[in-house]
Amino acid sequence: MVNDTLQVDLAVIGAGPAGQKGAIQAAKAGKTVVIVDRLGVLGGACLNQGTVPSKTLRSAILDLTGFIQSTHFGQEVRQLGDISVQDLRIRVKRVIEDENETLAQQCAANDVATVFGAARFANSHAIEVADQNGAVTARVEADKILIATGSRPRHPIDLPESDGLFVDSDIVFNMDNIPRSLIVLGGGIIGCEYATMFAALGVDVMLMDRRDDLLRMLDNEIAGAFVDFISQMPHMTIRLGQSIDRLQVGADGTRAQVVDKEGGMLEAECLFYSMGRVANIHGLALERAGIELDDLGYLPVNTLFQTSVGHIYAAGDVIGPPALASTSVEQGRLAVRNAFLLKSHHFPEFFPYGIYTIPEISSVGPTEEELKDKGIRYLVGRAKYAEMARGPIAGDTRGLIKLLFHAETREVLAVHIIGTHATELVSLGQMALDHRVRLDYFVDTIFNYPTFAEGFRIAALNGLNKLSEGDWS
């Protein structure tokens, strides 16, 4: 039975980065807005299951174990038995609660209404909201609609029924105990992040992938540096080019097993699978709104983030790559600005990628390989963390800042970083690309000392030395 019918200018399905920021953008423009979300809290999977809790977990592990400092200063890493699930959950829970409160305050301050329950289209202008039993409890009628339902883990391999032996990024935080051994299936971003986190925690990790490389989207030199680092991590084993036939539970019911196509078998106390993500559109009844998915199961949109139905927009993971929290925020904001004919702009050409592995990785702009494919003459300037006083101080001497710049104009073309604070430092490179800065800027700029940021100056000087030598690619 429908208890409420709301009539608004904008209905937003999904309370993650794209939905919440899009809703507030509309409210700022004086529109009436309601957010509908099935989780019962704001923030979506990003805050409650994905990005924020996983990065909090990483920070907690590094703090509690002293892993980074131990590799340089020779300190002992705290043993696995010294750190409990409860130690980690306390930090994750506190951050999620704080962020949820902040988001709720933002919505309240902007008069954004919230309705919690499962959304489904009644028609192209109306959304029904159902409770956990499927009963419709509310109806929202809207002039414009923004779909921002995000994504969920992809399950391409049949998973046997078990009691916590097989987990993904949505349910990893429900583990009762930290396993002594873990198989991580998938060498993409999420798989590599969790593999390095658990290895730093002292868990014996086996990172597996059917492909022959990890993080294939990275510049080859940076990817190589990452593989070199984690290959030397205690408790880490890497198995690439691994064929997988099936997953199964061991005979005693306490081990997760991977059987390859040759009949070989590997096992551990737990298996974490990360084999991509898919658009979270289950139960939306998109056909009632006249919306169809593309061949990959995402919502197709034009450059205005408009679906095939003119007044319905979509943003965030549900429309496919790049599927980052940072890009989702901007997509949600732009979708709403376009929907209500507000001053807008095209989605930025350049934006940074951040990978919270150990060590941290971030980049903006093309890789060396992409520049070569385009026939662009470029040079490389490098600064090793070991060359900066801040590196040894922080216990990180294996990091690298890499600048790619045009061999003739000296314009900065890309920045790739591996090491402590890489995701913070890359913003300097992003601004350089946006404003078409020449390498000379970093040479002539004074940076605080000792900082990692001065690595941009060291890398620029290194690049100019090569320019004078005529050593271009």
Descriptive account of the structure:
- By secondary structure, the protein is an alpha/beta fold.
- Helix content is 31%, strand content 24%.
- The chain is built from 13 helices and 22 strands.
- The chain has helices at residues 17-28, 44-48, 51-65, 67-73, 85-109, 189-200, 220-231, 325-339, 368-373, 390-394, 422-434, 439-444, 455-469; strands at 4-13, 33-37, 112-116, 118-123, 126-130, 136-147, 151-153, 166-167, 181-185, 204-209, 236-240, 246-249, 256-259, 265-268, 270-273, 277-279, 312-314, 353-355, 361-364, 378-384, 400-406, 412-418.
- The longest helix is centred in the first third of the chain and has 25 residues, at 85-109.
- Biggest sheet features: 7 strands, mixed
Beta-strand residue fraction = 15-25%
Mean residue pLDDT = 92
Structural class: alpha/beta
User: What is the terminal-to-terminal distance?
Assistant: 68 Å
SS summary, helix count: 13
Short description:
This protein is α/β, with parallel strands linked by helices and 473 residues long. It is 31% helix and 24% strand.
Q: What is the fold's blueprint, element by element?
A:
Elements: E1 4-13, H1 17-28, E2 33-37, H2 44-48, H3 51-65, H4 67-73, H5 85-109, E3 112-116, E4 118-123, E5 126-130, E6 136-147, E7 151-153, E8 166-167, E9 181-185, H6 189-200, E10 204-209, H7 220-231, E11 236-240, E12 246-249, E13 256-259, E14 265-268, E15 270-273, E16 277-279, E17 312-314, H8 325-339, E18 353-355, E19 361-364, H9 368-373, E20 378-384, H10 390-394, E21 400-406, E22 412-418, H11 422-434, H12 439-444, H13 455-469
Parallel strand pairs: 1-2, 1-6, 2-3, 6-17, 8-15, 9-10, 9-15, 10-11
Antiparallel strand pairs: 4-5, 5-6, 7-16, 12-13, 13-14, 18-19, 19-22, 20-21, 21-22
